[in-house]
Design brief:
With 221 residues, the chain is of the alpha/beta class. It is 36% helix and 21% strand. It has one domain: Rossmann fold (3-Layer(aba) Sandwich), CATH 3.40.50.150. It is built from 8 helices and 8 strands; from the N terminus they run H-E-H-E-H-E-H-E-H-E-H-E-H-E-H-E.
């Protein structure tokens, strides 16, 4: 498909939040080694991680617990984790240090900029979007991340056989994504859902009567 450009998109909503002292300390100490500036400059992934391994892009990792669990369970996969919430950035960096992980890098900014301008076609093994903001009011649906333009862009950046994995506890959003991926010529939707870490956010959704729905699609040749 080549490099995608000219997407019509709504800028990512940046949540306000103040980092704790521990999170701020992790940001100041670890960002020079593990942080990635979302500036539109192309990334050299082997140089970034110091090795040639499959790369998973995680979009919106919250406080980072699931990211660390995945990275610890799959040391053979490098993880580029993107978030816009400063406390989450600091939290993930601190957890990465505590667990001694060398396969995680952290980016502060809009994941669509990373996908569109900083990654090459067929450079990713997986793209994970766990519990994106559902923007439940109809007038806000245009803010939802996983739409047609995003699906096109991810398809271009996944290698053949690579996966897009979306999880949400908002049923209308899940149905939107299911229809989108099911009708997209670049994807084949899977019935079997791969393992992913269980999160505190997910537990709150279950307690509120909103069980998670996982949607996984494979990039076709």
């Amino acid at each position: 498909m080549g490099r995608v450009s000219g997407l019509t998109e709504v800028p990512t909503f940046r949540r306000r939040g103040r980092a704790t002292l521990g999170q701020a300390d992790a940001l100041s100490r670890l960002w020079p080694a593990l942080g990635v500036a979302v500036d539109g400059a192309p990334l050299d992934l082997p140089a970034l991680f110091g090795r040639h391994r499959p790369v998973a892009l995680e979009v919106g990792f919250g406080m980072g617990e699931a990211t660390v669990a995945f990275a610890a369970a799959r040391p053979d996969v490098d993880v580029l984790a993107v978030e816009v919430h400063p406390p989450g950035l600091g939290s993930l960096l601190r957890l990465v240090e505590e667990h001694g992980l060398g396969n995680v890098r952290v980016a502060d900014g809009d994941a669509r900029v990373v996908l569109r301008s900083m990654l090459q076609p067929a450079s990713l093994e997986e793209v994970r979007v766990f519990f994106p903001d559902p923007w439940p009011k109809r007038r806000h649906w245009k803010r939802r991340l996983v739409g047609a333009a995003f699906a096109d862009l991810v398809a271009d950046r996944l290698r053949p056989g690579g996966r897009l994995h979306v999880a949400t506890d908002w049923r209308p959003y899940a149905e939107q994504v299911r229809l989108l991926l099911g009708g997209h010529p670049a994807y084949a939707v899977l019935d079997e859902v791969p393992w992913r870490p269980f999160t505190r956010f997910e537990q709150r959704g279950i307690a509120a009567g909103r069980p998670a729905v996982d949607l996984v699609a494979v990039r076709q040749h």
